[in-house]
Protein backbone atom coordinates (compact mmCIF):
# COMPACT_ATOMS: atom_id res chain seq x y z
CA UNK A 1 0.00 0.00 0.00
CA UNK A 2 1.37 3.38 -0.96
CA UNK A 3 0.95 6.81 0.53
CA UNK A 4 -2.75 7.64 0.57
CA UNK A 5 -3.87 10.81 -1.13
CA UNK A 6 -7.61 11.42 -0.88
CA UNK A 7 -9.58 12.30 -4.00
CA UNK A 8 -10.44 15.83 -2.70
CA UNK A 9 -6.78 16.49 -1.83
CA UNK A 10 -5.70 15.19 -5.25
CA UNK A 11 -8.29 17.38 -7.01
CA UNK A 12 -7.10 20.52 -5.21
CA UNK A 13 -3.69 20.01 -6.81
CA UNK A 14 -4.96 19.63 -10.40
CA UNK A 15 -3.52 22.99 -11.56
CA UNK A 16 -0.02 22.06 -10.45
CA UNK A 17 -0.23 18.37 -11.40
CA UNK A 18 -1.53 18.83 -14.93
CA UNK A 19 -0.74 22.39 -15.94
CA UNK A 20 2.29 23.39 -13.84
CA UNK A 21 0.65 26.50 -12.43
CA UNK A 22 2.74 28.18 -9.77
CA UNK A 23 2.48 31.44 -7.87
CA UNK A 24 4.57 34.48 -8.74
CA UNK A 25 5.43 36.59 -5.72
CA UNK A 26 4.65 40.22 -6.47
CA UNK A 27 7.16 41.41 -3.85
CA UNK A 28 10.31 39.61 -5.02
CA UNK A 29 9.22 38.42 -8.50
CA UNK A 30 10.17 34.77 -7.95
CA UNK A 31 7.91 31.86 -8.85
CA UNK A 32 6.95 29.38 -6.15
CA UNK A 33 6.23 25.84 -7.30
CA UNK A 34 4.48 23.97 -5.96
CA UNK A 35 2.37 26.86 -4.66
CA UNK A 36 2.52 27.46 -0.92
CA UNK A 37 0.80 29.85 1.48
CA UNK A 38 3.92 32.03 1.61
CA UNK A 39 6.84 32.87 -0.65
CA UNK A 40 9.80 30.63 0.15
CA UNK A 41 12.20 33.34 -1.02
CA UNK A 42 11.02 36.49 0.81
CA UNK A 43 8.27 35.38 3.19
CA UNK A 44 5.46 37.35 1.50
CA UNK A 45 2.03 35.95 2.41
CA UNK A 46 -0.44 38.09 0.49
CA UNK A 47 0.73 39.33 -2.91
CA UNK A 48 0.75 36.61 -5.59
CA UNK A 49 -0.48 35.98 -9.08
CA UNK A 50 -0.79 32.67 -10.90
CA UNK A 51 2.13 31.86 -13.17
CA UNK A 52 1.86 29.32 -15.98
CA UNK A 53 5.15 27.45 -16.26
CA UNK A 54 6.33 26.28 -19.69
CA UNK A 55 7.26 22.75 -18.67
CA UNK A 56 10.66 23.19 -20.29
CA UNK A 57 13.95 23.08 -18.48
CA UNK A 58 17.13 21.11 -17.93
CA UNK A 59 18.30 18.33 -15.66
CA UNK A 60 19.94 19.95 -12.64
CA UNK A 61 20.66 16.65 -10.85
CA UNK A 62 19.45 13.05 -10.98
CA UNK A 63 19.48 9.61 -9.43
CA UNK A 64 18.52 6.15 -10.59
CA UNK A 65 15.91 4.41 -8.42
CA UNK A 66 16.19 0.61 -8.30
CA UNK A 67 13.31 -1.74 -7.46
CA UNK A 68 14.07 -2.08 -3.76
CA UNK A 69 14.53 1.67 -3.36
CA UNK A 70 11.19 2.70 -4.87
CA UNK A 71 8.46 4.21 -2.70
CA UNK A 72 5.48 1.84 -2.26
CA UNK A 73 3.24 3.69 -4.72
CA UNK A 74 5.81 3.06 -7.45
CA UNK A 75 6.44 -0.61 -6.69
CA UNK A 76 4.47 -1.70 -9.78
CA UNK A 77 6.66 0.37 -12.08
CA UNK A 78 9.85 -0.64 -10.28
CA UNK A 79 8.94 -4.32 -10.70
CA UNK A 80 8.25 -3.78 -14.41
CA UNK A 81 11.25 -1.60 -15.27
CA UNK A 82 13.66 -2.59 -12.47
CA UNK A 83 15.01 0.98 -12.42
CA UNK A 84 13.99 4.45 -13.41
CA UNK A 85 15.64 7.87 -13.40
CA UNK A 86 14.36 10.61 -11.11
CA UNK A 87 15.53 14.11 -11.93
CA UNK A 88 15.68 17.51 -10.32
CA UNK A 89 14.61 19.76 -13.18
CA UNK A 90 15.43 23.45 -13.24
CA UNK A 91 12.55 24.97 -15.18
CA UNK A 92 13.22 27.83 -17.59
CA UNK A 93 11.27 30.10 -15.22
CA UNK A 94 13.50 29.23 -12.25
CA UNK A 95 11.78 26.73 -9.93
CA UNK A 96 13.37 23.32 -9.44
CA UNK A 97 11.09 20.31 -9.23
CA UNK A 98 11.58 16.58 -8.78
CA UNK A 99 9.99 14.16 -11.25
CA UNK A 100 10.53 10.91 -13.04
CA UNK A 101 12.36 11.03 -16.38
CA UNK A 102 10.78 8.83 -19.07
CA UNK A 103 11.55 7.74 -22.63
CA UNK A 104 15.27 7.46 -21.87
CA UNK A 105 17.71 4.75 -20.86
CA UNK A 106 19.47 5.19 -17.53
CA UNK A 107 22.90 5.61 -19.15
CA UNK A 108 21.60 8.46 -21.36
CA UNK A 109 20.68 10.81 -18.49
CA UNK A 110 23.01 13.81 -18.20
CA UNK A 111 23.16 16.94 -16.10
CA UNK A 112 22.20 19.85 -18.35
CA UNK A 113 20.05 17.65 -20.61
CA UNK A 114 17.10 19.67 -22.01
CA UNK A 115 13.75 18.18 -20.93
CA UNK A 116 10.04 18.86 -21.39
CA UNK A 117 6.90 18.09 -19.45
CA UNK A 118 4.63 15.14 -20.25
CA UNK A 119 1.51 14.02 -18.41
CA UNK A 120 1.61 10.31 -17.64
CA UNK A 121 0.15 7.71 -15.35
CA UNK A 122 1.82 7.87 -11.94
CA UNK A 123 0.15 4.99 -10.08
CA UNK A 124 -3.21 3.38 -9.27
CA UNK A 125 -4.80 3.63 -5.83
CA UNK A 126 -8.19 2.16 -4.92
CA UNK A 127 -8.79 1.42 -8.62
CA UNK A 128 -8.30 5.10 -9.52
CA UNK A 129 -5.48 5.91 -11.93
CA UNK A 130 -3.49 8.91 -10.73
CA UNK A 131 -1.85 11.01 -13.42
CA UNK A 132 0.74 13.71 -13.05
CA UNK A 133 3.79 15.29 -14.56
CA UNK A 134 6.94 13.54 -15.63
CA UNK A 135 9.66 14.77 -17.96
CA UNK A 136 11.24 13.39 -21.13
CA UNK A 137 14.24 14.46 -23.17
CA UNK A 138 13.25 17.51 -25.21
CA UNK A 139 12.44 16.79 -28.82
CA UNK A 140 13.88 19.32 -31.26
UniProtKB/TrEMBL annotation:
Gene3D superfamilies: 6.10.30.10
Domain ChsH2 C-terminal OB-fold: residue ranges: 52-120
SUPFAM superfamilies per UniProt: Nucleic acid-binding proteins
InterPro entries assigned: ChsH2_C, ChsH2_Znr, NA-bd_OB-fold, Thioester_dehydratase-like
UniProt domain ChsH2 rubredoxin-like zinc ribbon: residue ranges: 14-45
Highest taxon, organism lineage: Bacteria
Annotated transmembrane regions: none
Name this polypeptide is given: DUF35 domain-containing protein
Amino acid sequence: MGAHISIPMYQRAVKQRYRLVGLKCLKCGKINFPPKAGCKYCGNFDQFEEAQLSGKGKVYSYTIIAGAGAPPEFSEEAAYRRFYPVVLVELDEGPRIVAQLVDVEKDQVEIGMPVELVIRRIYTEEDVIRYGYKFRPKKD
